[in-house]
Amino acid sequence: MGNNNSSKTGGEHQAPRYDFDQVIDRKGTYSDKWDLYRGREVLPMWVADMDFRSPPEVIQALHQRVDHGIFGYTSPPDELVDIFIERMKSQYNWDIEADWLVWLPGLVCGLNISVRSVTRPGESVITQTPIYPPFLSSISLAGCHRVDAPLKATEDQQWQMDLEGIDITDNTQLFMLCNPQNPTGKVFSREELIAIDEYCQKHNLFVCTDEVHGELLLDPDAEHIPYATISDYARENSITLLAPSKTFNIAGFGCSVAVIPNKKLRNRFKQVRKSIVPSVNALAYTAALAAYRDSHEWHSQLLEYLRENHRLMLETINSLPGLSQIPAQATYLGWINVSGLGLQNPKSVFEAAGIGLNSGADFGDSDYLRLNFGCPRSTLQQGLERIRLLVDSLQD
Ligand SMILES: Cc1ncc(COP(=O)(O)O)c(C=O)c1O
Predict the structure, then answer these.
(1) Closest-CA residue to 83 (of 61, 64, 66)
(2) CATH 3.40.640.10 assigned to 65-294
(3) Chain-centre distance of CA 150, in angstroms?
(4) pLDDT of 226-273, one tens digit each?
(5) Fold for the domain defined by 8-54+296-395
(6) In ligand 1, which atom is closest to the CA atom of 109?
(7) How many Å apart are CA 229 and CA 193, to the nearest integer?
(8) Where exactly does CATH 3.40.640.10 map onto the chain?
(9) Is 274 strand, coil or helix?
(10) Which of 112, 155, 162, 116 has the alpha carbon at shortest distance from 132?
(11) Looking at the predicted structure, is the pLDDT value of residue 6 above 50?
(12) CA of 135 to the centre of ligand 1 (A)
């Protein structure tokens, strides 16, 4: 398998070291990330999957499941449900019940189902911007109006919300939260979550909270707190979307879960989903179970590796004229302010220089580009070097 170097010394068992430095060729695997630039000398650092192999424990469980050879319709394994419930308890002291879980083949469908479960066309939905683009499209596709709650960069390198500044309308039904936030990497503090909760209580809003990046904390002082644990109101009026997909690099399988404590809300959600969204496939459940059950050590070494990548990226970006970046508290995504370069279309200029990034305009702020640093260090160094050369060339 190549990236699991177990070793023993002096008879004592040592944790395996996983090799995140290994560069693996993804060309020819129909990878969205790599195929976008097929035949071009562009390093893809855009869509949010990582260029690391998934944990060997996940790969092994998949081998066993594939060897069984029958891939019929599959229910969520009891063991996965139990492990998920234990995980929420041990990580967040969050007591959840098996009945509250609705398994889904992805989170984006969860965002769309959530909006349609609690709104009618013509009503309004609040979301913080900039934001992962499917938040924006889930609102427009449901025929709803978008009310933006912009996050502002402060002098002391933080992202700040301004609840009082939201232009809320009488027909606003839903607050869509992304915590940790994609693309800024912000992790909302308890005080901020309490403020959001009070705001939602005051305006009688449901909350859809996407917490898929909650296990990718970079900042040692940051704590992921599920919004649903903040108050009784939060529990009864929220849909929390979670998945092992980002943390364990298994997004291509699609195994996610909506946690919906309120039975009425849960039934509405299931009703909207019915006959439109397919069930989760057999291999996806297998991968999710092995990720949550067997991959703790891989996860903790991944975080160490990502923290160093993040440090390297921040140092480089903030040393270049015209670029700046506020530290991400979580995720493997860097949100780079490129406005100082004065470019009309930054994404295409970066592509021409051999770096494929996400356009900030898609997230609601064209001053930015998003860089995915979930890759071997040598790949990141190559991308950062190309950025440095581009910035140098623009100074001439
Ligand atoms: C916040 C957030 N939600 C959802 C997704 C995608 O979820 P899925 O691929 O399960 O639909 C992403 C992927 O980048 C994301 O960052």
Answers:
(1) 61
(2) yes
(3) 19
(4) 999 999 999 999 999 999 999 999 999 999 999 999 999 999 999 999
(5) Aspartate Aminotransferase, domain 1 (3.90.1150)
(6) 11
(7) 10
(8) 65-294
(9) coil
(10) 112
(11) no
(12) 10
Residue reference for tokens 């998949």: 62
State the closest ligand 1 atom to the C-alpha of 333, by its place in the atom list counted from 1: 16
User: Quick check: 221 and 252 in contact, CB under 8 A?
Assistant: no
Ligand 1 atom 16: residue of nearest CA: 182
Ligand 1 atom 7: residue of nearest CA: 107
Pocket of ligand 1 (CB under 6 A): 48, 106-108, 132, 178, 182, 210, 212, 243, 245, 251, 254, 256
Tokens of 340: 């100082």
8 Å CB contact between 124 and 145: yes
CA 216 to centroid of ligand 1, rounded, Å: 13
Of ligand 1's listed atoms, the one at least distance from the Cα of 104 is 10
The CA-based dihedral angle spanning residues 358, 362, 366, 369, taken in that order and rounded to the nearest 10 degrees: -20
Query: pLDDT tens digits, residue range 50-94?
Result: 999 999 999 999 999 999 999 999 999 999 999 999 999 999 999
Q: Separation of 107 CA from ligand 1 center, angstroms?
A: 6
Please give the distance, rounded to the nearest whole angstrom, from the Cα atom of residue 376 to the centre of ligand 1.
22
For residue 299 the two structure tokens come to 């996860």
Question: Cα–Cα distance between 40 and 85 in angstroms, integer?
Answer: 45
Task: Report CA(210)–ligand 1 centroid distance (Å).
Answer: 8
Q: Which of 245, 249, 281 to mutate to test the pocket of ligand 1 (most atoms within 8 A of CB)?
A: 245
- For residue 323, is pLDDT > 60? yes
Residue 58 CA to ligand 1 center (angstroms) comes to: 20
Closest-lying ligand 1 atom to the alpha carbon of residue 105: 10
- Give the largest CA-CA distance in the chain: 69
Token pair of 43, please? 């390093």
Tell how many helices (H) and how many strands (E) occur in the chain. 12, 19
Of 174, 200, 197, give the one whose Cα is nearest residue 119.
Answer: 174
Please provide the DSSP assignment of 125-176 as one string: EEEEES--HHHHHHHHHTTPEEEEEE-EE-TTS-EE--GGG----TTEEEEE
In the chain, where does the domain assigned CATH 3.90.1150.10 lie? 8-54+296-395
Query: Residue 47 CA: which ligand 1 atom is closest?
Result: 14
Q: How many other C-beta atoms can be found within 10 angstroms of the C-beta atom of residue 68?
A: 9
